[in-house]
From TrEMBL:
Catalyses which reaction(s): GTP + H2O = GDP + phosphate + H(+)
Cell compartment(s), UniProt: Cell inner membrane; Cell membrane; Cytoplasm
Assembly behavior: Part of the signal recognition particle protein translocation system, which is composed of SRP and FtsY. SRP is a ribonucleoprotein composed of Ffh and a 4.5S RNA molecule.
Any one GO MF annotation of this record: signal recognition particle binding
Stated name of the protein: Signal recognition particle receptor FtsY
Recorded name of the encoding gene: ftsY
Membrane topology, as annotated: Peripheral membrane protein
NCBIfam families xref list: ftsY (TIGR00064)
Source taxon at top rank: Bacteria
Keyword annotations: Cell membrane, Cytoplasm, GTP-binding, Hydrolase, Membrane, Nucleotide-binding, Receptor
GO biological process: SRP-dependent cotranslational protein targeting to membrane
Originating organism: Novosphingobium guangzhouense
Enzyme Commission number, as recorded: 3.6.5.4
Length: 312
C-alpha cells in the first residue's frame, strides 16, 4: 500500500483537525501537571490517571508513566515537555502495528473479509479501502456478503457504481457463502487483484455468526486454500473502550488479522487507537478521519503520536 507521503500538508492538516478533540481532551486532563527536573510519585499518579481518562488504556498509561518516571528534564517539566516524552512513547507503541494492507497474494485475488458491528462504518470503509487500492493501480471487486440487510447490499452497490468497480451480490436473506464462492470465481477469471468481502455485523448471536464465517472460510478454502488472506475488523473510535471489547469478541469469533479504525474525527476518544495497539498488537492497516472517499489512509506512527499529543 504505497500511498503518497502523508507527512505532507493536506493529510497532516486532516490528521490534526481530525484528532483535535482527542488532543484537547488529553491537554485538558493534563492541565496543571508539571514539576521539577524529576516528577514526583504523586505527579506520576496524576499523569497516569489523566492518560487513562483520555482513553489510552491502563497498559499504555502505565508504560508512559514508567517512561516519564525515568526522565530527567533539563528544565523544569511543563506540559509541553511532558507531552514530548509521551509522544515519543506513543510512537514506540504505534510503530510495530502501523502496517498498511499490501496486495501480495499469488495467485490473485487477495481475499479480504471485512467484519464489524452494524453502525461501525463498515460499508463506507470498504468503499474507501477499494478507492485506496485503485489509487495504487490495483483492480478491485466487491462482494455483498452481508445479506441480512438489504440496505447494506444497496449501499455497497451504490459505492461500486460510483467507483466503477464490479460487485457480486444476491438477494436479501441469501446464502453469504454462495455469494463469496461466486465472487472468488469471478475475480479469479477476471484477474482481479483484490476481492473485498462485506460480512454480516450481527453480534447478538455469536455462535450463528461464527458458523456463518466458518462456512465462508470452508468455501473459500475449496477455491483458494490461502483465502481469506486478511480478516479486517472495522472499529468505530467513538465507542471508546467498547471498541476494545469488540476486538476481543471478533478475535475469538472470526480470527481477526488486522484493524481499521474509523470516525476518529468525530470523537475525543482517539486515544483508544493507542490502547488497541498496546493491548492487542494487531496490525492497524488504516485510520479514517473524515467522510470523503480519500479520508482513509495508512498512518505514519511518529506523526500520529505527535498529533494525539497535540504537538505541532
Amino acid at each position: 500500500m504505497n500511498t503518497p507521503d502523508q507527512s505532507t500538508g493536506d493529510w497532516s492538516d486532516r490528521l490534526f483537525g481530525g484528532f483535535r478533540k482527542t488532543s484537547e481532551r488529553l491537554a485538558g486532563n493534563l492541565a496543571g501537571l508539571g514539576g521539577g527536573s524529576r516528577l514526583t510519585t504523586a505527579q506520576l499518579d496524576a499523569l497516569e490517571d489523566a492518560l487513562i481518562m483520555s482513553d489510552l488504556g491502563p497498559r499504555a498509561a502505565a508504560r508512559i508513566r514508567d517512561r516519564l518516571a525515568e526522565e530527567r528534564f533539563e528544565r523544569d517539566a511543563d506540559e509541553r515537555a511532558i507531552m514530548e516524552v509521551a509522544a515519543r512513547e506513543i510512537a514506540e507503541i504505534l510503530r510495530p502495528v502501523a502496517k498498511p494492507l499490501d496486495i501480495v497474494a499469488f495467485p490473485r485475488p487477495q481475499v479480504i473479509l471485512v467484519i464489524g458491528v452494524n453502525g461501525s462504518g463498515k460499508t463506507t470503509t470498504i468503499a474507501k479501502l477499494a478507492h485506496l487500492f485503485q489509487e495504487q493501480d490495483y483492480s478491485v471487486m466487491l462482494a455483498a456478503g452481508d445479506t441480512f440487510r438489504a440496505a447494506a447490499i444497496g449501499q455497497l452497490g451504490v459505492w461500486a457504481d460510483r467507483l466503477s468497480i464490479p460487485i457480486i451480490k444476491g438477494p436479501e436473506g441469501g446464502d453469504p457463502a454462495s455469494i463469496v464462492f461466486d465472487a472468488v470465481k469471478a475475480a479469479t477469471e477476471q484477474g482481479i487483484d483484490a476481492l473485498i468481502v462485506d460480512t454480516a455485523g450481527r453480534l447478538q448471536n455469536k455462535r450463528e455468526l461464527m458458523d456463518e464465517l466458518a462456512k465462508i472460510r470452508r468455501v473459500l478454502g475449496r477455491l483458494n486454500p490461502a483465502a481469506p488472506h486478511d480478516v479486517v475488523l472495522v472499529l468505530d473510535a467513538t465507542n471508546g473502550q467498547n471498541a476494545l471489547s469488540q476486538i476481543e469478541i471478533f478475535k475469538e469469533v472470526a480470527g481477526v488479522s488486522g484493524l481499521i479504525m474509523t470516525k476518529l474525527d468525530g470523537t475525543a476518544r482517539g486515544g483508544v487507537l493507542v490502547a488497541a495497539a498496546e493491548q492487542y498488537g494487531l496490525p492497524i492497516h488504516a485510520i479514517g478521519v473524515g467522510e470523503k472517499i480519500d479520508d482513509l489512509r495508512p498512518f505514519n506512527p511518529d506523526l500520529l503520536a505527535r498529533v494525539i499529543a497535540g504537538i505541532a
